[in-house]
Specification:
Structural class: alpha/beta
Strand content: 5-15%
Order of helices and strands: EHEHHHHEHEHHHEH
Number of helices: 10
Strand order of the largest sheet: 2-3-1-4-5
Distance between the termini: 12 Å
Number of strands: 5
Bound molecules: adenosine-5'-diphosphate
Radius of gyration: 17 Å
Shape: globular
Largest sheet: 5 strands, parallel
Helix content: 55-70%
Length: 199
C-alpha cells in the first residue's frame, strides 16, 4: 500500500480532512495519536520517559501528563528533540505493521510534523492543508480552550506554510472559501488513478 502524508499546522483541519478521506474508504493512520498510545502503553518507553522527565510525566491512572510534558518541551527545543527521538522508533515499527496488513491502494498518514515523519517512512505523495494562521488559532481556541500564547509556542516548532508548500504535491485550501469535500474528492481521484495506471 502506498502512503500519502496529510499535513498542516495546528488547527489547519487535518483531523477534519482525514475523516473525509475515511468516508471515501481510505484508511487513515494518525501519527500523533500513535505516539501518544506508545507513550502510554509501551513499558520500555514509559520507563524511559519517567527516567527523563520524572514521575510527573504520568497521572496516577497511567495517562500521559501532556500538560506537564508540553510545558517542558515547548519551552526547550532540545527537550522536544529528545522526546521525538525517544518516541519515533516505536511509532516507526507500528507504521510498518499497519502497512503490512493493509490491502488498499493507498493510506493516509496524518501528521503535524512532516519532516519528522519523513524520517520514519517514505511518502508516495504529500497533501498539505493551508489555512491562515489567525483562523487556525481561532479554531484551536474554540476546539481546545487553549490559550493563544500556548498555541503560538507550539506553532513555532512546526514547519512554516512556505516549507510545507515546497514539499507538497497537493494543497487543500481550508479557509472556508472552497468546498473541502470537492478538493479532497479530486485529490483522491488523482492519486487513485495514478496508482491504478502504474499497476
Ligand atoms: P487539526 O487536526 O489540523 O489541528 P482540526 O481538523 O481539528 O485541525 O480543525 C480544528 C478545528 O477547526 C476543529 O474544531 C474543526 O472542527 C474546525 N474546522 C476545521 N475545518 C473547518 C471548516 N472548513 N469549517 C469549520 N470548522 C472547521
Amino acid at each position: 500500500m502506498k502512503l500519502v502524508a496529510l499535513t498542516g499546522g495546528i488547527g489547519s483541519g487535518k483531523t477534519t480532512v482525514a475523516k473525509i478521506f475515511e468516508l471515501l474508504g481510505v484508511p487513515v493512520y494518525n501519527a500523533d495519536k500513535s505516539a501518544r498510545y506508545q507513550m502510554e502503553h509501551h513499558p520500555i518507553l514509559k520507563s524511559l520517559l519517567i527516567e527523563h522527565f520524572g514521575s510527573q510525566a504520568y497521572h496516577v491512572d497511567g495517562r500521559l501528563n501532556s500538560e506537564y510534558i508540553s510545558g517542558i518541551v515547548f519551552n526547550e527545543p532540545t527537550q522536544l528533540t529528545w522526546l521525538n527521538q525517544a518516541v519515533h522508533p516505536y511509532v516507526a515499527i507500528h507504521i510498518q505493521e499497519w502497512l503490512m496488513h493493509a490491502k488498499d491502494l493507498y493510506g493516509v498518514l496524518e501528521t503535524a510534523l512532516l519532516k519528522e515523519s519523513m524520517k520514519l517512512t517514505n511518502f508516495y505523495k504529500i497533501v498539505h492543508i493551508s489555512s491562515p494562521e489567525s483562523l487556525r488559532i481561532k479554531r484551536v481556541v474554540i476546539r481546545d480552550g487553549q490559550l493563544q500564547e500556548d498555541i503560538l509556542k507550539k506553532l513555532r516548532f512546526q514547519q512554516t506554510e512556505e516549507e510545507l508548500l515546497e514539499l507538497a504535491d497537493f494543497t487543500i485550501l481550508n479557509d472556508g472559501s472552497q468546498s473541502l469535500i470537492l478538493q479532497i474528492h479530486n485529490i483522491h481521484k488523482s492519486i487513485s488513478n495514478e496508482i491504478l495506471k502504474k499497476c
